[in-house]
Design a protein that fits this description.
Helix content is 17%, strand content 36%. It is α+β, with helices and mostly antiparallel strands.
Length: 204
C-alpha cells in the first residue's frame, strides 16, 4: 500500500504519520503560566537535535479553537521549560494532562502532582518523574499554513533518578531502561512500554 499524502487532508495526514512513525518519545513539558503556576502538557512530536550545542525539539500545534497552545505561549514569553520523560507509572496523569483547558489553568494543580526544585532551572520538576531536562528556548520556528511551532530548546541540565542508574563495564554511568520503563507513543490511543530490551553492538 502506498499512502499519497498529497491526496489527504491535514487530519488524514496526521493520522497516517502518527500510525507509522512509531514509537515516539513523549515530552511532558512543564512551563510557567502568567500567574506563576505551572502548565503541563505532553507532546510526541519530540526528538534530539544535536549534542553541540545540546538541543531538543518539540512540535506544538494549536488548540481545537485555533488558538496557540499554552505551552507555546508560555515558552515564547518566559523562555524556559522543563521536559520530563514519561514512564509507565505516570501514564494516567500524563494522559489526563492532555485535556484542553483555558489559558492559565494549571494541570499540575488539577492533578495534584508534586514538584521540587531542579538544579540549573528556575522552574521545578515533577517529583515522580525519573528523567527531566531543564531547557531554555534556543529558537522558535513557524512551519506550515496552520502553523505548527517548532520549539528548539537548549538543554542546560539533566536530572536522572539514581534508582535507574547503573555503571557499565567501562565505568560509565548508564540508564537502566528496564527500571526506567519509559513509554513510547503509538497511533490512536496506544502506547508502548519498554518491554524487551535488545542490545546489539554497532560494527566498527
Amino acid at each position: 500500500m502506498i499512502i499519497d499524502l498529497d491526496t489527504l487532508s491535514p487530519s488524514q495526514t496526521y493520522f497516517s504519520m502518527i500510525q507509522t512513525l512509531v514509537p515516539r518519545p513523549i515530552a511532558w513539558v512543564l512551563s510557567e503560566n502568567p500567574a506563576g503556576d505551572f502548565n503541563l502538557a505532553p507532546f510526541s512530536y519530540f526528538s534530539a537535535v544535536s549534542s553541540n550545542p545540546p538541543l531538543v525539539m518539540i512540535s506544538i500545534g494549536r488548540k481545537p479553537s485555533g488558538e496557540f497552545k499554552d505551552t507555546k505561549v508560555n515558552i515564547e514569553e518566559r523562555r524556559d521549560f522543563v521536559i520530563h520523560i514519561v514512564h509507565r507509572e505516570m501514564l494516567e496523569a500524563m494522559n489526563a494532562s492532555s485535556a484542553t483547558l483555558p489559558l492559565g489553568d494549571s494541570e499540575v494543580s488539577r492533578l495534584g502532582l508534586a514538584t521540587t526544585s531542579m538544579e540549573g532551572s528556575r522552574l521545578p520538576r515533577l517529583v515522580n518523574c525519573k528523567i527531566a531536562y531543564a531547557c531554555s528556548c534556543y529558537q522558535m520556528v513557524q512551519v506550515g499554513p496552520d502553523p505548527q511551532t517548532l520549539v528548539i530548546g537548549r538543554v542546560n541540565t539533566i536530572y536522572v533518578d539514581d534508582d535507574v542508574l547503573d555503571v557499565n563495564e567501562k565505568d560509565r554511568i548508564k540508564v537502566n531502561t528496564k527500571r526506567l520503563d519509559p513509554l513510547g507513543r503509538l497511533g490512536a490511543s496506544e502506547y508502548l512500554s519498554a518491554g524487551e530490551v535488545i542490545s546489539l553492538k554497532r560494527p566498527l
